[in-house]
Amino acid sequence: MLLFETVREMGHEQILFCHGKNPDIRAIIAIHDTTLGPAMGATRLFPYLNEEAALKDALRLSRGMTYKAACANIPAGGGKAVIIANPENKTDEMLRAYGRFVNSLNGRFITGQDVNITPHDVRTISQETNFVVGVSEKSGGPAPITALGVFLGIKAAVEFRWQTQRLEGLKVAIQGVGNVGKNLCRHLHEQGMKLYVSDVNPVKTEELKKLFDVTVVNPDEIISLDVDIFAPCALGGILNSHTIPFLQAPIIAGAANNQLGNEQLHSQMLAKKGILYCPDYVINAGGLINVYNEMIGYDEEKAFKQVHNIYYTLLEIFHIAKQQGITTNDAAKRLAEDRILNTKHSKAKEIAA
Ligand SMILES: NC(=O)C1=CN([C@@H]2O[C@H](COP(=O)(O)OP(=O)(O)OC[C@H]3O[C@@H](n4cnc5c(N)ncnc54)[C@H](O)[C@@H]3O)[C@@H](O)[C@H]2O)C=CC1
Ligand SMILES: O=C(O)C(=O)Cc1c[nH]c2ccccc12
């Protein structure tokens, strides 16, 4: 991988490689763009196959955060961090060492919990830095409100696709029923939708069966089910050249970051199949909205109102894509890049004045 070539191509401002021997820690903090404000993005701990995979994840996730903030009208930039480790080997010492790296950026990067990072872990990190958000009891953590945003996205997609607001009886396949997926199931169950769920961790699906009437599906089969909506709520890259041919769902609306293996190629493939794709960084912005409001002083009514904008933003994106004959992913990208460019121009005028 040509490092600077890749960074230039994706438009990142800064990559911080964090290494420590005692405790052993390898982490990457990627700051994509801070035009709109300080880089915000949660931290993921994952046993990546190699350092290149970790770097690619950090680069794509952090760029996604830039577009996420722009589409959600949040004055924040895009950042993300990955800790290369097996969850079983996670220690408080490792997390505190990571917190010191975050602190060294002096507020340029503000983080919190993503995959394999718990609220306890964030509180451990916060012993070394104030630049973490998303654990206060007041905001309740990001996952439930992320799930609300995804639910609102499903409503928007159904309305656009079938000109109805009636969800009862529609079939939804949810891949991954962790923090976000299980909260999403609650919203969908309340609407009388039929739920098909999968998780590589059977404990999660067993827990869900005690709460809702769900059909548990083998993880290898969930994506090809004949349902109305496929909701990827696990890890990224699930929409690719191998999986898209098996998709039967006419709507894709899920929380996972980086759902598209290759943004251009696979968004085109979905469009050619007539599948309505909800761009992931638009539909899953509820978590960012929630933690941003926590950072500036949590006002639940204001946060919920902003999350409800996800419904309207997606409808706008669907209409732009239809009118201009472009993919929904390109429509979202244009919306975000226009907002970022406008801010760059405004800042330039202020400096020139
Ligand atoms: N937590 C939040 O507020 C936000 C989360 N996201 C994204 O949403 C996704 C889910 O996030 P969380 O629910 O917080 O994570 P989580 O780790 O709580 O849940 C993910 C679930 O997916 C399962 N899983 C992993 N690979 C799978 C596979 N191949 N098939 C089926 N299940 C699989 C895991 O066992 C786990 O139960 C992630 O991609 C995350 O980056 C995006 C925005 C905000
Ligand atoms: O939407 C994402 O992928 C996020 O990282 C949202 C999020 C969850 N917790 C946080 C803490 C600080 C900045 C963003 C987040």
UniProtKB/TrEMBL annotation:
Residues at the catalytic site: K80
Enzyme class: oxidoreductase
The Glutamate/phenylalanine/leucine/valine/L-tryptophan dehydrogenase C-terminal domain, residue ranges: 140-350
Binding of NAD(+), residues: G176, V177, G178, N179, V180, G181
PROSITE patterns from the UniProt entry: GLFV_DEHYDROGENASE
Keyword Oxidoreductase listed: yes
UniProt-listed GO biological process terms: amino acid metabolic process
Reactions it catalyzes: L-tryptophan + NAD(+) + H2O = indole-3-pyruvate + NH4(+) + NADH + H(+)
Alphabetized UniProt keyword annotations: NAD, Nucleotide-binding, Oxidoreductase
Gene3D superfamilies: Leucine Dehydrogenase, chain A, domain 1, NAD(P)-binding Rossmann-like Domain
Family: Belongs to the Glu/Leu/Phe/Val dehydrogenases family.
Protein name per Swiss-Prot or TrEMBL: L-tryptophan dehydrogenase
Species whose genome carries this gene: Dendronalium phyllosphericum CENA369
Gene from which the chain derives: scyB
